[in-house]
Amino acid sequence: MKSQQKCIVIFALVCCFAVLVALIFSAVDIWGEDEDGITEENCSKDCRVVLVENIPEDISFLNNSTSHLPLSIGLYNLLNQAIRVVEIVSPQWLLNSSDNESSFQPGRALLSSLQGLKARGIQLKISSGIANSTELSKLNAEVHYINMAALTKGNLHSSFWVVDRKHFYIGSASMDWRSLATRKELGVLVYNCSCLALDLHKVFSLYWGLQYKDFIPSFWSKRLFAVSNRDTPLNLTINGTKALAYVSSSPDVFIPKHRSSDLEAIARVIQDANHFIYISITDYLPLMGRNTSRLEYWSRIDSLIREALILRNVRVRLLISCSEKTHPLTFNFVWSLRSLCMEQANCSLEAVSSGGQRDVSLEGINHNRFMVTDRAIYLGNLDWEGEEFTFNAGAGLVISKLEDIDDRNFTVVEQLQAAFERDWFSQYTIPLQANKFLVCNKHQIKPMVLLKPTACEQTGGTSAYVATVATSGIQYSARTGYHTP
């Protein structure tokens, strides 16, 4: 009897030891062939960054205006760099269509290039929130499905590629034919930058490991810990110029040790701005409960914009879409913020018209999701709404200039500023006029929103563009902020 008990005790100890060993190894970085030998110690920091855009064919800017590499060509170039593995995260997979219209051709061509990776001996790995996708099943890819509804009650909105853990793309475009044809998109290609690519690969690896899970792990493996964050960014050389950079992600429950959240990244970029903050975003709505009967004010970004505008006298311009999906309270927030700056500087709001775009029911003309200041850029995947950052998965990239920069190379920050100003001053912007609210539906003008400089601003005043609830059925509560009655 005693020997039987002893056996049971020994067996229990062995089991405990095995579990302990498994836990220890899951929290330890084990670099092997899977990682191509790239580590935080030997990764490359001499990087090349290229801005890429998709400009709908019915949109034409002035001949001397800023232009960048077309998105479709940039993605082909990235695939041509691939030697071993291409990792893709996208909220949508709709590159193919049965319609023969020319607008669908770029999507079909990209789909064909992805299908051809296997013949080149290149592995294609995809993390997706779309279950049973017909298009994904035809890609010759290894696909991991993430059940975001079970994990966070949200969706997978991340959009980025990582190639051989050396090169990557991140931006607003998804694997949707519209992102290569009828939507205005912007992103960056980053080449030979394995330190930053390795960090984004860790975000991909987190998604990859969530397949078949309906719960969020209580702790994350050490191999998912971030390489950089807002307090310890990577010191890089980008296009021959010294710069700082790091990767961020959302939501908070998907953030391992050392990773900055998208909200932390946005906050740092706004707080570090000295002279201007330009924001180009699809949706701006500082509310929680968008699809419920009870709305609550969400101040995380809105309060930072107010602080920059009022207390630090920073010029703020906000360019947002006005489309079928634009929430009717958006412009109440805009006008509330506008009223705050009346005494300090004249503020105005503009809208970018959808014009002749065929797909005006989807996101309007502007699908960009970026911010540029005099110090830094932030490129993300999420709209600036409370529920986006709380429930949905997204990733972001911050690149900032060093203060003591001596050379005068045209930096990425200045390139993105020029792209924003091109849009801002283009013929596709419609000023928001006093006491005249834009109605964003197909029976009205379908614009997009901006803040344009006024006479006061042009002579040195501060321009601001903000959104806060005014009169549209939202009341203030000292306990919870704004909510619907």
TrEMBL record:
What is the protein name given in its UniProt record?
PLD phosphodiesterase domain-containing protein
Q: Which residues form the PLD phosphodiesterase domain?
A: 152-179, 362-388
Q: Which organism is it from?
A: Oreochromis aureus
- What Pfam families does the record tag this protein with? PLDc_3
Q: Which Gene3D superfamilies does the UniProt entry name for this protein? A: Endonuclease Chain A (3.30.870.10)
Q: Family assignment?
A: Belongs to the phospholipase D family.
- Note the coiled coil stretches, chain numbering: none
Molecular functions per Gene Ontology: catalytic activity
Q: Which PROSITE patterns match?
A: PLD
